[in-house]
UniProtKB/TrEMBL annotation:
Top-level taxon in the UniProt lineage: Bacteria
Species lineage: Bacteria, Pseudomonadati, Pseudomonadota, Gammaproteobacteria, Alteromonadales
Domain N-acetyltransferase: 2-135
This protein's record includes keyword Ribosomal protein: no
Any GO MF annotation of the entry: N-acetyltransferase activity
Record key words, sorted: Acyltransferase, Transferase
Family matches, as Pfam families: Acetyltransf_7
Name of the protein this chain belongs to: GNAT family N-acetyltransferase
Coiled coil: none
GO CC terms: cytoplasm
PANTHER family in alphabetical order: ACYL-COA N-ACYLTRANSFERASE, GCN5-RELATED N-ACETYLTRANSFERASE 2, CHLOROPLASTIC
Keyword Transferase: yes
């Protein structure tokens, strides 16, 4: 496996295909995917032996207090073999993120146990997620 931090046009197309494989990413256009990757401070990809993207995540951070992890995706054919754990380890041990105090992410209830095993908790002092749509 190969780890990448810079994404060629072909890699971005592969990220877009990963988005299409998950319910929350199906509506994303290729242009949105390009802008999303370019607008994120850190992107991490895992390629298989054939140089096909099998895992992806992106991070936005102040590099001191918080790093928000977005879009953790592992291709369906590679789930359950440690790729997701490897992605999260790459995030936590990234040179620019090792001093960050808190990592945060959103996840579905069925993924809570996966993230709890990696040290994440839903106990965040009563903080609630709030959202406002930009019309």
């Amino acid at each position: 496996m190969t780890i990448i931090y810079r994404f060629s046009d072909d890699h971005i197309k592969q990220v877009h295909q990963l988005y299409k494989s998950v319910w929350w990413g199906k509506e994303r256009s290729l242009e949105d995917t390009q802008n999303c990757i370019r607008g994120s401070q850190i992107c991490i990809g895992i390629l298989d032996e054939d140089h096909k993207l099998i895992g992806f995540t992106r991070i936005i951070s102040d590099f001191i207090y918080k790093a928000i992890i977005f879009d953790v995706i592992v291709s369906a054919s590679h789930r359950g073999n440690g790729t997701g754990q490897q992605l999260m380890s790459l995030v936590k041990n990234h040179d620019q993120l090792v001093k960050v105090k808190h990592f945060e992410l959103y996840c579905l209830p069925e993924l809570e146990s996966f993230y709890k095993n990696l040290g994440f908790s839903t106990d965040v002092g009563g903080i609630k997620l709030m959202r406002c749509s930009n019309s």
